Amino acid sequence: MTSNAPTRQPPAHAETNPFLFDDLSTPAHRLCDWSEVQRISQRGVSLLEVLIAVLVLAIGVLGAASLQLNAVRYSASAGHTTHASFIAYDMLDRMRANAADLASYATSVSGACDPDAAAPASILASDKGDFAQAVTCQLPSGEASVQVVGDKATINISWSEARIVAGQNDTEFVVSSIVRRTP
Question: Which residues have CB under 8 Å from 172's CB, separation 6+?
Fold first, then answer.
């Protein structure tokens, strides 16, 4: 049985591109229609993905910058503590070297840096002058005191951390040691 009804033929361009076929009842057209719906629903999604990626990147960069800033702050604070430690232990070593004048080392230091201080005439005066110059010139707003009680010396050095962290209280470094043993 042959039918005399004419069969529908796809247009000539459908052979080169099956998605351009205009017949709604064919699977090729349904694929074209579905892909068109997907293409339309995807508009702007890549822009949104880029914006989210930039936001995540910006948060990461800000976090890294914050870490770097804190590392610099803590490094500067540790540097000041190291300087104070060197100054205090240098003074203790000088006191041990001149133990005969131990009680005379008691002093207090504050004020501005004076790098052109006059040359002292004695070892004791030289030790005190070097200590005062180191505290006031190497530490910001540095102050110090040396207390001697018997054979024990206590050195207290403080300096300002306000330049590193606004509103920060002064930092204090205290070291005590027995300078000489009395027989």
Answer: 156, 157, 158
